Amino acid sequence: MARNITLAMDDDVLDKVRVIAAERKTTINGLVRDYLTRIAESEDRASRVADRIEVLRRKSRLEVGPITWKRDDLYEC
After folding, report:
1. What is the pLDDT along the chain (77 residues), one digit of tens a residue?
2. What pLDDT score does 77 carry?
3. Residues near 34 by beta carbon (within 8 Å), at least 6 away in sequence
4. HEC sequence for the chain
5. Measured between alpha carbons, how far is 28 from 7 in angstroms, rounded to an integer?
6. Comparing C-alpha atoms, which of 10, 31, 9 is closest to residue 20?
7. Distance between CA 76 and CA 22 in Å, rounded?
8. CA angle 6, 11, 33 (to 5 degrees)
């Protein structure tokens, strides 16, 4: 079910957004809806990736031994 929300913005911003919406053949409501949908989908993807990384980290058998080198050793030629 779609729900209505109310936004408050400065008149100059509203005027610019109206022009952008018209150029894109949509409405301000459409612009806001699409933007918020993209944010939600992006957050969902990031969360799924973080969850997958955690699962892989827990399954990993990698063991890191002691550091036997100094930072300057990495730059010796």
Report:
1. 889 999 999 999 999 999 999 999 999 999 999 999 999 999 999 899 999 999 998 898 888 889 888 888 888 76
2. 61
3. 26
4. CCCCCCCCCCHHHHHHHHHHHHHCCCCHHHHHHHHHHHHHHHHHHHHHHHHHHHHHHHHCCCCCCCCCCCHHHHHCC
5. 11
6. 31
7. 60
8. 40
Each domain of the chain, given as residue ranges in start order, spans 29-61
Inter-residue contact 28 to 17 (CB < 8 Å):
yes
Residues contacting 14, CB < 8 A, separation 6+: 28
Q: Give me the pLDDT at residue 36, please.
A: 94
